[in-house]
Design brief:
By secondary structure, the protein is of the alpha+beta class. A hairpin with a 7-residue loop joins strand 7 and strand 8 (178-181). Helix 3 (55-68) crosses helix 12 and helix 7 crosses helix 8. The structure holds guanosine-5'-diphosphate. Guanosine-5'-diphosphate is lined by residues 17, 19-25, 45, 47, 88, 139-140, 142-143, 255-258. Its main location: cytoplasm.
């Protein structure tokens, strides 16, 4: 197969949802369609379950699963599909944001009863800002839920999307009869008592046909005709260009658990979802069909086996082909590296591969060379943009609890930060180190991992910080910046990349500071132009 057709048949995407909406179940059904797994229950959820074990022990256990589910690849109708796993737990939102830099599109799963939930809102916002094409799947139609039109309204208002239903439910919950597929113009009937795969669809290209009344009864047929008329009156027609530009989001209804409406979703997905997209670097836009290989690290998994310092760096291939045993330039370190056993991912296993294409993810064994965001090329100096850090929500001083192990402690902190577990800030005033995290759970994880993987002990001390803002002086030499640096010295720190950060102790302080020093820009993410 030619290089171009290899690109054209790839679809790399992520499924995002609030925990419990059905992401794992949907993933599993998609894999079943691809023949990548044989039975339900094969995909382990990477969810943090509340249980007997303490949360952070659970996270450790899940870390193993999470390597296995990082990338789930399968073939369907001649396309190669790569699903990138996104943790739903809010404490791991940063991981998900980073993974979203490596997807070409997403499917958003929404629970029909719960509607749009908090995590969905945050994640969709990130996708919307980057114009990532999105398909919405409204799940659990076998349960009593919200009215379909109300839900579509909610999706538009809360998520700021413009939707176009591609399918529409006939009844719901106890009365759920099936779905009408506007895309294929057929009716797919649901038989509630069977949890089996329901594959039979009936072609109803003309909704006024009596066949519809026979299939679902007069009352339901009448209601469906009215609903579809409304749908066609209110919502714009599907337009592929608008979808690909991120301006229109098709919506499907179904029940992942019952494998209902999933095939329709998948069929439409392979037809409309984008092939690997071009990516902006600091230097230029890089297109997937360029000859030369480029890619970037979006995730690092470390120390799965405490006896080896093993790390697996996940690279998304942006352009060209990635080949085994070929020297590539690690741009940040200006160093050539060769990889003898790059891993490609299949449903639940990884295998060494000789060649990978744009859209694919390869896992590279790493001894500490990589950081999240690093770029690899065939020699050209390219730095991919777009893995920003957001302000953490929690801040604590980290102290060394075993003076004999300070080397281990700093090495451990350094590597955990490279992995993106948390953010490190070093205070300008006294060099003290502050760890910022999205969730409180991470402090336990860091403490545990420092001890078990690096033999170092730490303690924490609370620090009252409301937000970290990245400081951009419009003029470094002006008096205003000098005054700011002097007055706020106690609250200034450097992040890991050496960028200046202001640790504001309250919203009020932040506002006052912004007003007092108008020539300084305060950014809420580490990456700005
Ligand atoms: P995730 O947290 O988004 O990965 O959600 P899961 O896939 O683990 O699903 C959460 C729960 O919802 C599980 O108990 C599933 O069995 C259930 N579930 C998923 N899809 C459906 C569905 O279509 N109908 C019903 N009734 N339950 C579902």
């Amino acid at each position: 197969m030619s290089f171009k057709s290899e690109i054209a048949r790839r679809r790399t995407f992520g499924i995002i949802s609030h925990p419990d909406a059905g992401k794992t179940t949907l993933t599993e059904k998609l894999l079943l369609f691809g023949g990548a797994i044989q039975e339900a229950g094969a995909v382990k959820s990477n969810k943090i379950k509340k249980g007997a074990t303490s949360d952070f022990m659970e996270i450790e256990r899940q870390r193993g699963i999470s390597v296995a589910t990082s990338v789930l690849a399968f073939e369907y109708k001649g396309t190669k599909i790569n699903i990138l796993d996104t943790p739903g737990h809010k404490d791991f939102a940063e991981d998900t944001f980073r993974t979203l830099t490596a997807v070409d599109s997403v499917i958003v799963v929404i629970d029909v009863a719960k509607g749009v939930e908090e995590q969905t809102e945050k994640l969709v916002e990130v996708c919307r800002m980057r114009n990532i094409p999105m398909i919405v799947f409204i799940n659990k139609l076998d349960r009593e839920g919200k009215d379909a039109f109300d839900l579509l309204d909610e999706v538009e208002q809360k998520l700021g999307l413009k939707v176009t239903p591609m399918s529409f439910p006939i009844g719901m919950g106890y009365d759920f009869k099936g779905i009408y597929n506007l895309w294929e113009q057929n009716v797919n009937l649901f038989s509630g008592d069977s949890r089996k795969n329901i594959e039979e669809t009936t072609e109803i290209s003309d909704l006024s046909s009596e066949k519809l009344d026979e299939l679902i009864g007069d009352a339901s047929a009448e209601e469906l005709r009215d609903n579809i008329e409304l749908v066609q009156g209110i919502y714009p027609k599907f337009d592929k260009t608008k979808y690909l530009e991120g301006h229109l989001q098709p919506v499907f209804f179904g029940s992942a658990l019952n494998n209902f409406g999933v095939r329709e979703l998948l069929d439409a997905f392979v037809e409309i979802a984008p092939t690997p997209r071009a990516k902006q670097s600091e230097e230029r836009l890089v297109k997937p069909d360029e000859d030369k290989f480029t890619g970037f690290v979006f995730k690092i998994h470390a120390n799965m086996d405490p006896n080896h310092r093993d790390r697996l760096a996940f690279i998304k291939i942006v352009s060209g082909t990635f080949k085994r045993n070929t020297p590539y330039l690690h741009v940040r370190n200006n160093k050539k590296l060769k990889f003898s056993s790059p891993n490609a991912f299949f449903a639940e296993k990884k295998e060494i591969v000789d060649i990978s294409y744009p859209g694919d993810i390869v896992g590279l064994h790493d001894t500490g060379n990589f950081k999240i965001g690093d770029t690899l090329t065939e020699g050209e100096v390219i730095n991919y943009k777009g893995i920003p850090s957001f302000s953490p929500e929690h801040f604590r001083y980290i102290n060394n609890a075993d003076p004999l192990k300070s080397k281990q402690l700093y090495k451990g902190i350094d590597q955990l930060m490279d992995e993106g577990v948390a953010q490190l800030f070093t205070l300008e005033l006294n060099g003290r180190k502050v760890i910022g995290t999205v969730g409180a759970l991470q402090y336990e994880v860091i403490q545990y991992r420092l001890e078990h993987e690096y033999g170092a002990k730490c303690t924490y001390e609370n620090l009252n910080v409301h937000k970290a803002c990245w400081v951009e002086p419009t003029d470094k030499k002006n008096q205003e910046f000098e005054e700011f640096s002097r007055v706020k010295q106690r609250f200034l720190a450097k992040d890991k990349r050496g960028q200046l950060v202001f640790l504001a102790d309250s919203m009020f302080t932040l506002q006052m500071t912004q007003q007092k020093y108008p020539s300084i820009i305060f950014h809420f993410t580490s990456e700005y132009d």
